[in-house]
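look at this one:
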Amino acid sequence: MVRKEAEFPSPNELVVCTVTKVFEQGAFVTLEEYGGKEGMIYLKEIASGWIRNIRDHVREGQRVVCRVLAVDERKGSIDLSLRRVTSSEKKLKLSEFEAERNAEKLLLLVAKKLRRGEKKAYEEAGFPLIRRFGSLHRAFTEIARTGGECLKELKLGESWSKALCSAAQSMIKPTVCRVTGELSLRCIRSDGIEVIKNVLIQTKKSLEGGGGLEFYLVGSPRYRVVATGSSYKEAEELLERAAQMIIQKMKEAGGEAEFRR
């Protein structure tokens, strides 16, 4: 099971869920990344428009991606929405979830060799890696790319560092390298949304070349940008060029743009 360090998700977060019960007023689900905690999708959040039969949209055992609407930790309740997740957000989230599951298997394999249980694996290495790199998958990818140099600042100990480096280099051999960043785009013009859309389209057409660029709306005004290439250097250079071009084009159009890795 993919694990998050926090006990509960945050509002607006995308979460992977499994539908456990469907009834007329909505559906109950378990959150895969939060220890199987139960969440609720009310009928109005299942799909847009009139719903004739809820089972046309969800069914028991189905894996879905939901957006967190509200969390009450005291009551243990989590309200979710299915309709507020776009197809591109769903695709990206499921891809990240599968990558994280594979990375977790690698972490637990390393832990087994070091005679550590799952709890110790996360306490000693898993959560520190997630805090530093954002996910286990990105952590292992960076370990493979740097030959383990990125682990020095974490001070995980020699046994963990050597084992993680060995596992990452032997098992993570990407044919396509991917790096990500986040853009904050604003334009107060009456056609501001079209301005942002055109800037992203123009940038994608201008820079794809041998690599690729994809943009995903995280939640206005935040956009995730994913750059791919045949090497990490190529992907990173593409990401940097894209960010610079978008910032310049937004400025020329009277808008604002900020980029974060």
Summary: Residues 87-113 form the longest helix (27 residues). The helical segments are 87-113, 118-133, 136-146, 158-171, 192-207, 232-252. Strands lie at 14-23, 26-31, 37-42, 63-72, 77-81, 177-186, 212-219, 222-229, 256-260.
